[in-house]
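Researcher: I'm preparing a figure for a lab meeting and need a structural model of a single chain. I don't have an experimental structure, so a prediction will have to do for now. The sequence is pasted below. Please return the structure as tokens so I can convert it later.
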Amino acid sequence: MFKNKKTKSDPIINQKRQWGSEKNMVPLPWLHERPSTTKLVLSRIAIFLTIFFWITYILSIIIRQLIDTPQGYDFTMEAFTYAAVVTFLTFSALMYLIARLGAFERFSKHVRVPHSVLEKHFSHSDSAITVLVPSYNEEPDVIRKTLFSAAIQEYPQKRVVLLLDDNPNPTNPAALERLNQTRNIAKEIEYLLAVPFDRFNNAFESFEHKYNNNSLIPAPVIKELSEHYLWAAEYLFKMAREEQIEDHVDVFFRDQVLNELAEDLKLVSQALDLAVKEGAQLSKERINQLYKRLLWIFKCELTYFERKKYASLSKEANKAMNLNSYIGLMGANYKFEQTPDGTILVAAEEGEEYDIQIPDSEFLLTLDADSILLKDYCLRLVYFLQQPGNERVAVTQTPYSSFRGAFTRIERISGATTDVQHILHQGMSQYGATFWVGANAVIRKIALNDIVEKEWIGGFEIKRFIQDRTVIEDTESSIDLAVHGWKLVNYPERLSYSATPPDFGSLVIQRRRWANGGLLILPKLFAMIREKKRRNEYVSRIEIMLRVNYMASIAWASFGLVFLLAYPFNGHLLSTLVLLTALPYFIAQAVDLKYCRYSYLDILGIYGFNLILLPVNLAGVIKSIEQALTGKKIPFARTPKIKNRTAASLLFVAVPVGIVAFSVYIFLINVADQNWGNAAFAALNALAATYAIAAYIGFGNLLTDIWLGLTSWLYVDVKPKQEQKIAENASEIDWKAVLYNGENKGKVPHLSLKNLVVDTVSESK
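Model: Understood. Here is the structure written out token by token.
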């Protein structure tokens, strides 16, 4: 028997915590606090005040300036431009407040389903779920935690598949070793779960055989079940103690996944012991359910799939096509067929021998390789999908929260924005404006069949369930599903967690991707509105506004901020009313940060954080415009999930410095002109950006990245010389390639006309 011991703090190996980072590693509670009536009232007042002050500003400043005093063309254009910028920014602030209110209304009504109800429901359910974990060059330790959290979900029929998108035949020894480690993770987890599963499966079969006809179960049998639960708890406690702890994510996995499940099982054991002491009698059905729960936890098939091994599957280098390739194969058996281009998968006929079987399932769970699920995730979300009235819900998810106890300041502030966004996503479901957030989601597979697009490439059928036209594939698929009459809903609990970038370089890659694609999807939104109206479905204005803001706000906020930073607007256009218009938004966000266990003052840190991300967001928006003009897909840039720091591009570290310098320059000019409003705004920007550079990039890292950016062009990659072999005669062919492709494809080196003539003359001599 093992005894679990918890300590308040754990020794962290090989991790140096930055000053100003977070020491508390306890995550936010899975159940949201029920908001008070006062909080709901204040949230509504904040919305009213934002609208009131904006209208007052437009009427009293803009219109009055244009009507009361004759103005020139330049001032008129300035006034309209400034009013447009203020209006767009106010609109985004208003959408924040509306989504926030929607979240609080949902939290006030949410009632958690008792676990016994879930157990009873799934005791008579045969709905299978397939967990798909797309991965590319991830650290094995990161993948292991993700797969393990999925493998021990309390669900009757689950299958976990790691979709490896790495090069299946790397030449680098280190890459090959890492790939082999990753391939072995599934077997390692299956081995760990096999011992308890065999024990409980034998016990359950014995129970079923002995008490098949009993309605009530005697006390000794209940006591035996209690011992099984205690054994399971101690098995998990032992695994938790053996976990290697290196960072806050390891602590989360140990405490919230392994220890939390162990504590829950131990609690059931204690409850069963008390039932025996009090002489309570439990029904055969209830004992049956409790036995099945143990089986659900430890029963799981784990495997991996590498699409790049097969020439018949898509070669598109993005997460969407990694998922699509496997989803398109589900529900059939396949034979391997060797061709000169590589192995292809050929569907086997019924009764025919096959090499690989890919089972189908009613539900899919897509899960990023750096995400972790809490124990009830599958059980509660699938139960929600199977309730009457939810038949047309295609996707449900819990927008991910951040791992607490970040070791860097930038990971902490990035986590703060993530936790606040969790609230906003919950509120969007209140108005039917939910977007699929790709880190995790339970999907009804039949819904994907509704939106699938098919094309033939190189003689093979390629299926697109999840769109890869943009790099924000989940956002576009959300609109596709809505066009076909499907709904998306965020489950109002915190049941999933995902990593946030620990350094500025990896954050740049993530946020640039997030900023890219929204504008391209807007036309589909209007198509969705037309289609809903055609079906006589109600489309609320709030839903439309929230969706437009979600997809386009990065664009107008970025360009608007550039205008405010760079253009010296006339002082007559400035007013305290502008500050009053923005004040409810900033106060609400500060309150939300405190609600998520951050500081009120972090609102200032987030402002500076957004300033230094301005070039990143602009770059993403410009890429969207570029794709719209050229029609070429933007390459999918995966967020690095490595332990070493990722260097940022020169542009993204130089522009923040430029923002500081320019703000100081504007400040000095406006002080000289006694334009105190513009001077104060410039001073705020200079201070906020300087703090953000120091806190979130670091002056040392800044100088390093600038140096690398300035000198990188001096170096070129040296490619190994390949010996070019000239065929002894031009008639040498690869007969397999000719018979398969109809040409001598890729086997014989290209011969110039000169070489061909020389060879022919030589042969004749």
